Amino acid sequence: MPDIIHLLPDFLANQIAAGEVVQRPASVVKELLENAIDAQASSIQLIVKEAGKQLVQVVDNGVGMTETDARMCFERHATSKIRTTDDLFRIRTMGFRGEAMASIGAVAQVELRTKPVGAETGTRLLIEGSEVVAQEPVVTPEGTSIAVKNLFYNVPARRNFLKSNAVEMRHILEEFQRVALAYPDIAFSLHHNELEVFNLPATKLSQRIVSILGSTYKNQMAYCEEDTGFLVVKGYIGKPEHAKKTRGEQFFFVNNRFVKSGYLNHAVMTAFEGLVAKENHPFYVLFIEIDPEKIDINVHPTKTEIKFEDEKTVYAIVHAAVKRALGAYNIAPSLDFEQDVNYAPLQPIRLQGGFNSEYEPERNTSGSGGSTSFPGFTPPATTKRAVSKGWEQLYEPMKDVQQEERASMGTLETGLLSNAFAAPDTAPASAKKAIQIHQKYLLVQVKSGMMVIDQQAAQERILYEKYMASLQKKTGASQALLFPQTVELSPADAVLIKELAAEFKDMGFQFEDFGGNTIILNGIPADVLAADEKELLEELIEQYKNNSATLKLDKRENLARAMAKRLSARLLARMSDLEMNSLVDRLFACQVPNYTPGGQKTLVIMELSQLHDLFLKN
User: Fold this and answer.
1) What is the pTM assigned to this prediction?
2) What is the pLDDT of residues 434-469, one digit of tens each?
3) Is 519 helix (H, G, I), strand (E, B) or coil?
4) What are the two backbone dihedrals, phi and then psi, of residue 476, each rounded to the nearest 5 degrees?
């Protein structure tokens, strides 16, 4: 039998490695920016064309590379960051695997220009598909410039999987933001298609946050710091009243490396419990400094996942730090027993036919030391009857209201009971249709027994099919806002809005670009209540991103699902008989009435036999 196991060629091995390391242009941006930081650069420039598909270039003023290092950096597992096994558990640099440059060189045309500090000339290296095409001395500034052109030019299948320019640019912006936030002491700039997107001078963290996320964050931030010896937590959290429906502005950095951790996010969210609404997300930029030997970052090639040696302690410290910051800035409700509280004097109650101006409360100064006692009433004895009459008149309207409420409640209860116990053949049509329970469920009598409809789920199904029809036919009607609203978005959300501009218009939204990351919202879909339009837009963006993270949907279906999900959550209210009957009719006019777009049941039917079993009648 001939031998069948053999070594893969280097170019093929590099392409396989690139499948994990280089997933899209944003992956290249991340790796090149991190290399520039490891090179001790104080100024880093990112240049992008066609959302990175045509060009991703990073220029830094770091230490640069010699001719040999320039050639070696494109070899697999070649790195200056670690040398021994022990170094793997004391990592403080951003990179360490030695895979990124080899992977990038395997799937793109790369031009490297570099010159070490103090050298007279630099090196130019041109690589295509893992092969060195040219290497020559060149005149270039100190530092390194790496230009990655035509990504996936030799792997067309991978290139076809790339999304639209707007989507890819959104991912690039996210990576750029994370690195720029982690290193506020480094100057960063970003140009896309020769237009300047960011120009961030070296500054302190608070200024960097405002420069990246917008001026509205200037008054939202509260400083957070806790040093326990085991680890240090520091950064900024947002005040609860500024919590948003979108989740984007939440950043965790461990030893200046951005990480994704649901565990740490839960620690922060529990600290905000009771201060923000259930579906709102507070802003935070938090840095954790910990001994590298206490963590493991060698979990995933993207290095965004991390393992802690003592997760429970980290969780408790982060939770306590955020809780303390909320209390220190009087954000969390608290009781201060040392505060000097001045009670305002009680004002006299004026009654019809009772007190008038001559019966103002008098101060009793007969106490010891001439101190003034608590103010009180001292009416003349002759007015007691008038006073009592006045109090009776005060409460008479209250009695009338209470009697009216009891009467109306009695009528309501009687109506509900009569509806529930009415005979099928003798009950009026409206009585046989639906009864609302707790403003959440509808009970409907059917031939086989009883049907329970989830009000929110039914609304979601109805709205989804309606908005899908509007998007397909491009017939969404719009209502103009009396007062257009200015909405400031994060850079990534602003790109997303522009990407979905046509779909938003087809659904009924009307907005215009106001420059930067700000839009002017002029109109909303015609059947949406004109209230909290800005919040609705934020909810819609957040739901769209949530769907994108978990489902593979096209833009129209994703947007229709997001709109239906968010609007239906707002429609839990008391309904009239006409509204309940209309909801039932519209639900059964849907193509798939039994389930929401996400697969949740909209209704449940309980057979008569099941009801009999509940009462032991069988």
Assistant:
1) 0.66
2) 888 888 999 998 888 899 999 999 999 999 999 898
3) strand
4) -65, 125
